[in-house]
Amino acid sequence: MKTYLKYFLVLVLLGFAVRAPADTDTQLAQNIHELRSEGYRAATYLLIDNNLFERVREPGHREAYNDALGKMEKLLRLMDNPSDLRTPFNNFVSLIRELENQPASEDQAHYHLATVNRIMMAHGALDKAAAAQYSTLASTISEQLHALHQQSLETSQILLLYQNSMFSSIGIYFIEPGETVFQTIDASIVQRAQTLKTMLPEQTGTLENLDKQYSFIQPRLLNHRSDWVPTIAAFYLQRNTETLNALAREQALQKQAG
Question: Would you indicate the residue range of the signal peptide (predicted)?
Answer without folding.
Answer: 1-22
